[in-house]
Amino acid sequence: MSYRAETESPSHPGVLRRYGDRIPDVGSNTPLISLGEGDTPLVHSRRLHERVGCRELYFKLEMCNPTGSFKDRGMVVAVAKALESESKAVLCASTGNTSASAAAYAARCGLDAYVLVPHGNIAQGKLAQAVAHGARILDVQGNFDDALRLARLICEQHPVALVNSVNPYRLEGQKTAAFEIVDSIGDAPDLLFIPIGNAGNITAYWRGFVEYYRAEIATKKPRMMGWQAEGAAPIVEGKSVADPQSVASAIRIGNPASWRLAEAARDESSGEIKSVSDDEILEAYRLLAREEGIFCEPASAACVAGLLKYARQPVGPSGGRSLAESTIVCVITGHGLKDPETALGIESEIREVEPRIEAIEQAMGL
Ligand code: F0G
What we know:
By secondary structure, this protein is α/β, with parallel strands linked by helices. The protein has a six-stranded mixed β-sheet with strand order 1-2-10-7-8-9, with helices on both faces. β4, α5 and β5 form a beta-alpha-beta unit. The N and C termini lie far apart (59 Å). The site of ligand F0G has 22 residues, from α4, α9 and α13.
């Protein structure tokens, strides 16, 4: 398959061209593929920051990546390395976004993609993406943790590249979002709020912030504030969850692969990993859509739910900097269009009207 790195994405250089020199093992033999991932918007909060009472609140819109989630940053590196090592196929287990991303990059590069998805637990939009890109979808009669265990076994025994976040290149690509945040605001934020599922992304961000701090590009590192869904909160509870449940299907994970690394990120940063209920997630999901114009998927709203919860707590003696002095970033990991069932299920405001101007005027209250 031929490609020209300099024209893969003329408008957006992509993660490999922009940050390849900060990613180990990206060398002259690595194909600099791209779908224009990364370089996502960092937008100011217009309304929610008042509820939080912080100095600055930003949303990092990772939903603006080519397949609508943060996964593309790591997937581009994992697929480039799979190509470099002449793999013919990639495989992942996924709650949906990893599979959408793997399917897209594999399609672009002429690789076969196989995805193991937990039965009945994947949002329609994500499934549609994997189907559209021609991935071979295997609906595993089990949960995500079962699917990941099987994916690892298959890749140990067959020449297929595993592109879950246990593939080290995934986290290396994902850490570039932390670089972008520092590059955009001139330093690291004080607090980073992020949802946790398989715990790869919190690990990747922490690595990125530490590397920029060591390189003296940032003068500080953020406290890492990770949020699990209450029915799928193994790290919070200190034990794996056999039957994880949440409206946020992306983070319905009972035994995260990067569990220990996430705990290390929390502890090294004096951060916290806590949980939010489905009601809190849906309330934040609604507020983001209605007060900020940001339509994300429920898993992404979990970190905003966490921020609202955190802001309601009284500041204890060891509370560190008060929120009023803090710059905060929430990572908006995936697009709301991926999960239309949740959006329409909440409170559908669709009203039937007759095709007459008077009926429409009346319905509009004019
Ligand atoms: N937000 C979204 C939208 C996700 O899709 C995921 C994970 C997370 C947050 C959590 O990130 O796993 O690095 O802690 N989705 C994976 C998948 C598991 O298969 O798409 P994490």
